[in-house]
Amino acid sequence: MAMRTCLTWLQEKCLQNYFGGKQFCLLYKASVQKFSKQDLFWKCWDNGPTMVMLYSRNCVVGAYLKEGFQKKKIFITLFALQETEVSECTIGPYLPASLFYDRENFDCIPSFYIMLDEKNVIISSEICKKLGLPPRCSPMSIDDCETFRCTELLDERKTKGITLIQNHLLHILRTYKPYGDLVPQARILLLGPTGAGKSSFVNSVKSVFRGSITHQAMVGCGINGTSDKYRTYSIYGNDGSPLPFVLCDSLGLSQEAGLHFDDIHFILKGHTPDRYQFNSRESITSNHPNYIHDSQLKDIIHCVVFVFDATSVEQLSYGLVAKIKRIRRALIRCGILHVVLLTHVDRLDLITKRDLIDIYNCHPVKHKLEAVHRDFGFAFSDILVVSNYVSEWHLDPVKDRLILLALRQILCTANNFLEDLPLNKEVDL
Ligand SMILES: Nc1nc2c(ncn2[C@@H]2O[C@H](COP(=O)(O)OP(=O)(O)OP(=O)(O)O)[C@@H](O)[C@H]2O)c(=O)[nH]1
Ligand SMILES: [Mg+2]
């Protein structure tokens, strides 16, 4: 009979986070191994940190053995899991094996012991109270007991693999060439609601290429927005020459104020100069002293990136959603390719660092992708996910990888636009 844990995805996530970024490998399942205590010890004895889970009809309780089932007396963390809340208490020092009642020697931990063959757990009233369990729950009848080996979510081997991929991506992006050498740099425009993380993405990309955290673009969380100027950012390689792309940061979109619809048109057509001070009430005009009159292919936008905060993308006002859809329709009409960048995924409930490795298969993120697809009509393959650098002091290969993967996709999209260009010479909003 195949072993499958009784833990739900949500319970497992909750415990992974609670015990500081662990992953669990199921070693023993009593219902499969006939509630045999000998089998349990045989499977778990030398496995290092171990978690014992007990499933009763009404609750889930467990014991976390930081040093495993070794012979030494240790402190044991007992816990109860209710929904996504964990309550715990520490007992000991005890021999971990004495969590299980020993019929021959009448030996066990007096306040908490498991009678595996009888499918019962005895819990003192004091421990029940500490764990928030109902007062008269002991003896607690259990349906199953499972033990897990607990390892770090990110071990050295995984981190090494990610660093290799990261170096490979860095190489690809440093040597990227805009299609047909039509322009020296692909021009990427970041558009999105106020506070979505546009400027933070610029900083994140800069940080990854520089090899250290940098905060060149101003970042903030005021409701009226932080960026009020049009800024174009180049990134310089080790030899001092600019990398083949420019990130253009804009004023945030909002229902009432924010970036003026007509300003988007002028940016796309390459008329807006760097450091142009936006005005929500009126767009730039050709009378502006720095207006770029003779904009060329190198000045126009080659790919638009809609940036959304994953934690709030479903709560955007009706008016703002309508505005974004209107912008998107205009982009489609004039053949400008665009993608979505979901930021703040690290703030979604129960996301662990390990989830960032396989983020597109992570349940809460999948829900967000579906929401963006449903509400705005973007194709799933055009929705990218990153966790920006915001308060870190050091680079993290897991975050770097996501940022670089997103950038690679953005630059591919820019190349698709350039490749299609003869058919789209007239970029007219
Ligand atoms: N946790 C987390 N915070 C983020 C992320 N991206 C941005 N932030 C935070 O979100 C807030 C807004 O970020 P900005 O980069 O200023 O957003 P923006 O889109 O440039 O905002 P405006 O310039 O006001 O339109 C800041 O407090 C950032 O630190 C992310 O991926 N994860
Ligand atoms: Mg900004």
Describe the protein in words:
By secondary structure, the protein is α/β, with parallel strands linked by helices. The protein has 2 domains: 9-152, no CATH class; 156-424, Rossmann fold (3-Layer(aba) Sandwich), CATH 3.40.50.300. It has 9 helices and 14 strands. Strands 1, 2, 3, 4, 5, 6, 7 and 8 form an 8-stranded antiparallel β-sheet that branches. The protein has a 6-stranded mixed β-sheet with strand order 10-11-9-12-13-14, sandwiched between helices. Strand 13, helix 8 (363-376) and strand 14 form a beta-alpha-beta unit. It is elongated, with a radius of gyration of 28 Å. The mean pLDDT is 90. Bound molecules: guanosine-5'-triphosphate (GTP) and magnesium ion (MG). Guanosine-5'-triphosphate (GTP) binds next to helix 5.
What's the name of the CATH homologous superfamily of the largest domain? P-loop containing nucleotide triphosphate hydrolases
DSSP helix fraction: 25-40%
> What is the CATH class of the largest domain?
Alpha Beta
Second-tier CATH architecture of the largest domain: 3-Layer(aba) Sandwich
Q: Hey, roughly how much beta strand do the residues contain?
A: 15-25%
Mean pLDDT score: 90
- H/E series: HEHEEEEEEHEHEHEEHEHEHEH
Number of domain units: 2
Major sheet summary line: 8 strands, antiparallel
Protein name: Ifi44 protein
InterPro entries: P-loop_NTPase
Organism: Phodopus roborovskii
